[in-house]
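Researcher: Next entry in the queue.
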Amino acid sequence: MAATSRLPGVQRIGPTAPLKWLGWGWRALWASWRVSLPFGLVTAGVCAGIAAALIGSNLAFWALALTFGFVFVAPVLAMGNYETGRRLEAREPFTLASTFLPPGTLRQDVAYLGLVLFVIFGIWVQAAQIVYGLSTYQIHRTVDSFVRFAATSAEGHRMLVTGSIVGGAMAFFTFCLFVVSAPMLLDPRRGFFEATATSVRAVHDNFIPMLIWAAIIAVLTIGSAATGFAALIIVFPWLGLASWRAYRELVVAP
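Model: Structure for this entry, 254 residues:
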């Protein structure tokens, strides 16, 4: 595991910084569209395929739970976007291979990142199941019956409120741990524990701007899911590239 003598410094940013990151990410998206859009297309296609399979199997609740659970695994899925952002910034060539399998990611610390995200995702699935089970004694197998339950009944409303609180708290916890650490681990000199500690410090020292950034990510991700994941073709690489810029502005380079 990589180790350093001390944690890197964290920069202070203003509340408008997330908008600047989005602007940089948008320009980077179209500068790298030959690799970024195919990456977004594959991500959106996999998500849409899983959701369609669950809905087709009359597992509407699981389709919703796994859709919202996407935010818990997105940081590790976006490693290719971070690498593309790094190469754009360094004026290095980028390819489909470097985007789909970034060099240096097949190492222990990145595996720790994926493992922790998988555990958090599993906890979310169990939590969502408990919230649903405490809200109703029925099993809503179709999308129509589940939507009617969630939208028209008091139990459904409580389920949505409780699930949003639990899921939002878990999502923000995940955000604090990995908003900086995921792109930081592209640097082979950085270790998992060092990266996660730096990520938490970055959120702590810039709480309001990072809260705004978390809200932007949540809105764009949920909005993409509402389009049947079609918008994720653009939104996923856009946010990934913007997240690389966020890391570069937040963490003092070695």
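Model: The radius of gyration is 19 Å.
Researcher: Noted, moving on.
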